[in-house]
């Protein structure tokens, strides 16, 4: 992933490259000189590596999974073709439906996280004392191991000794037993996920905010726009590509939430309230050796993610605009 | 054009070669002369096993490459290795997975090799050895072929904080005569109190986890999870319901355990070690930790319900050999070494992570004059006399069994009567058990045909 480049910057890059291409005359002789031949070989080599990698590590496994999803297979022995049985079984698998509901419930954290990180980015964009230190602090959760963080939060959520409840007790609030209470287990996971993702989104927003031309703000000020109006009319639309990028990647990543769930609630939480779809898939595949059934679920999940992403691209196309 | 195609071919070859190199860690390739051994465990266990394996290499000259994972990643990694055709030569196997591994031709039948190795199987716990016998339809009987040897047997013992009871002036429980629930409850009530006078309870009678401790209550009350031939789920019986109700009442009615908010597994474990809990499970794998505690403790039979017979479970993990190994003789030798060699067993027992596999060593261990806990004999009694296999140990997969725990929280919290929940969950468990039995039959038919 090109983590540090904003989509805006990528856009600029392609435009610049197109111009450059127009200026350089294309070779007329189809690369007959020795230099061109060598270059072409190197080009092939560089092209081949990712293509073969893709075929080997993406296309082949995907095809394999698709085939497996039509079979009864325990992951050990021979596959037994059962047609659409697995998919039919999915329709009445309440656990699977529940896990899908949980997974999408977790996505409530995405808008919360985006709003918080935009606010933080605005704050970090000011000339604060120790600005660099703050930026680093907010980024630490991003680079930390997810497993370690999950264990840490598991302690923090402990109903009796946990940091969270001790903090709440400070204000006279008696906190719930977060991870063992079906009502609070999902919000608990969301809070943790938002906290973990904050630094990354903030950094992207910060880069986007800093690339907004100052002249726009100056012009707006001259026209008498207040701080809120400047934010609404300039900052928000200008960082919109970043918002779009974050929404898309967060939804894709959110649909695949697993590690936190597995570590913090190894049984899928009270009444299966924290089990995400990937957790459910993992349980079926590796704990109960229902590999065929699990791959069918994985395919359904994959199709769902694809659909949602396509819809988002559609919506974004309609709402995006160009500043000349 | 030809040349560039050649080039592309070379590149493709390189990429494939490099990816193949990544995955050839396991599986005992052609050039490596050693065995691969995959297992799981905590830090103490890893160190103890490494020491035992080093000695094996010294004695036999067979190099062993060790692949070790944490407990929760083991199943995933092993499955991935199998899917990638890089099954380790020797690896841990769970009782509940044995049948499918045998039916799919992954576990080697080691009956003859073990016989040749001149191992005295009579001197190893019968429960442990039989756990890895399978005759194509039934697992756990003495008739089956041998597909592994026990790494250990895990008698799940019960214990109490001796110092706490002595301070409270309570008569210490007998090591042979189990307490009945009626006798046990007043003791628990007496132990549950506020010791420092701040108005909050900070010492409890007990604190148990339903998923690992309910078995003893149910069995000693005459209930069980299934009928004898494992075809009928029997959790909806009055005996079962009464046991579950008694279990949850300890928390919700009698309040002799930390309340639901305080009752997460880790807490009661920590609390026992902090000296805040009177009665608590003491399993062999806890001994290395418990022996460092500030108070005295000992092991007793589990308290009993209506049958008056104490009961608990014995776990076991086995070590098996892959059918794809290049060195079957050496692989079996490693299995027998880890499972039955006197010196290897001593290394593992000294690390306080398990009870000895060998019966003679175990008897010596139990009667050691400086033994801690003093009543080590209880563990031997569990394995020999009254311990039982986990309900799902010999079924084809454990999904039906796990189903019981998923929605049990309201019962544990006192929001739903045990009998009502059990009646509700029984059909779901039955459906899953039926499915698993059907799978077992289909797999066995496929295997034999």
TrEMBL record, chain A:
Keywords: Cell membrane, Membrane, Transmembrane, Transmembrane helix, Transport. SUPFAM superfamilies: MetI-like (SSF161098). InterPro entries: ABC_transporter_permease (IPR051393), MetI-like (IPR000515), MetI-like_sf (IPR035906). GO terms for biological process: transmembrane transport. Residues 99-312 form the ABC transmembrane type-1 domain. Pfam families: BPD_transp_1. It is a multi-pass membrane protein. The chain crosses the membrane at residues 42-60, 104-124, 136-156, 188-208, 238-258, 291-311. Gene3D superfamilies: MetI-like (1.10.3720.10). The keyword Transport applies. This is Lactose transport system permease protein LacF.
Automatic annotation (TrEMBL), chain B:
InterPro entries: Bact_solute-bd_prot1 (IPR050490), SBP (IPR006059). The keyword Glycosyltransferase does not apply. Keywords: Cell membrane, Lipoprotein, Membrane, Palmitate, Signal. The keyword Cell membrane applies. It comes from the Bacteria. SUPFAM superfamilies: Periplasmic binding protein-like II. Residues 1-23 form the signal peptide. Coiled coil: none annotated. Pfam families: SBP_bac_1 (PF01547). This is Lactose-binding protein. It comes from Isoptericola dokdonensis DS-3. The gene is lacE_1.
